[in-house]
Amino acid sequence: MWQELLALEVESGSVLRVRIPDGRVSTFLPDTGPAPDGIVVEDGIVYWTTMGAPEADPAVPGEAGLDFSARNGSVQAVGLDGGSRRDLVPPGAMTTGKQLTSDGGGRLYWGDREGHRVSTVRVDGTGLTDLVVNPADEGIMGECVGVAVDPVRGHLYWTQKGPAKGGMGRILRVGLEIPAGRTAANRSDIEVLWAGLPEPIDLEVDGDWLYWTDRGTPPTGNTLNRAPLPPDGEQGTAPEILADGFQEAIGLAVDGEAGIAYVSDLGGHLRAVPLPGGPAAGQRPREIASLGPLTGLAGISARPDAPA
Known about the structure:
This protein is mostly beta strands.
């Protein structure tokens, strides 16, 4: 079970270390690069994506006025001890890095939103490959955001959130290998599992369940959801809402052993949500910490080298 979370504070460009039992917060890394979004911990290494520096339209307030279409996103890495920082995918090699995940076997996967693609790379920085590429003329409907991998069943899941509060979000699935004779741009194995969702963002597979955050319009948006993984060739069943009332729900990390899902939002709230049937079932969701606007989350066990 996790004792700590690493949370990305997007405006300050920081990785925050949050103790789960008492909500104590410290800064793990103060300078992630511009607009960090996805984070994962694998074998003592912290990996994260950046969306890159946006071009701001002063006539449009808030998030809607930020244009992230410049090709300046990245994937970066640093040891849990704070050492050996490096660019895994350097700025300029991708567009907008969103949720990041690992297959546990040496590969990372992420959504590239304005790049209209889902990509992968080995943890040593080699083998950068696109797995899904959507046509540029699809506009916002082709933007890829959240990702999850299921190496046991050989599947890759991702979200295409559609317009903000648009009710046009989708969750899709393909195999981890591109079919013979196909490319990332013309795959024959794409399945649309859910459509017409408020605005799905981050994903996670845990056991036989798919979990996701949704920042769309309530009552079905700004929620934490789950549904059983659909069999091959079948669409997903109606999702179960596990928690609501978030302020632009984004980050998600599921501790299956503890039976708790952790959710962050752009309002800066970090909440623990007990899962049905798990060890914490029956407990009420609780707020662990209130911070600046948060994006990605990753869980870690206690670090013996960390100060108390």
